Amino acid sequence: MSCVGRERIFEHFSRMNKTPMTILRLNYACELRYGVLVDVAQRVAAGQPVSLSMGYLNTIWQADASAMALESLAFATSPPRVINITGPDLLSVRQLANDFGGRFGKAVRFEGTESSDALLSNAHESFELFGRPAVSVQQMVDWIATWIKNGGPTLAKPTHFEERTGHF
Prior knowledge:
single chain; 168 residues; alpha/beta; two-stranded parallel ribbon; two-stranded parallel sheet; elongated
């Protein structure tokens, strides 16, 4: 709800002051040190169970998201244009965890089952405006698996993407 409130404030002042802007709805950006893929990879590598409560997701490489954010300035309007930013793929948390498990030589443990819904975004408009992300999910998984396997540092800030009650 705080995101909706923030959007309404920006929309109000955009209309009142005729200020062109874009509102970007981003989920979930990843890089080597942070993101949903890092969360899943770390749990698998540590032998911890992977929650399936949020069984599906979409994600985008942080650099691609940042490039799209900059490009969005050319499409700013008043009232604001809303653009979803994420990757094009519907990803299964179970499949991602099993992929990381294979790369790490670890059996994957799961907790819970996939829910009938998930926080997903349709980023079709962003692809029409900016093109598809340059970094594929497979490349992200490759890079993150290598990073985690080699002990690369992380930001040590879990995303809590699997949290469904709003308590972080």
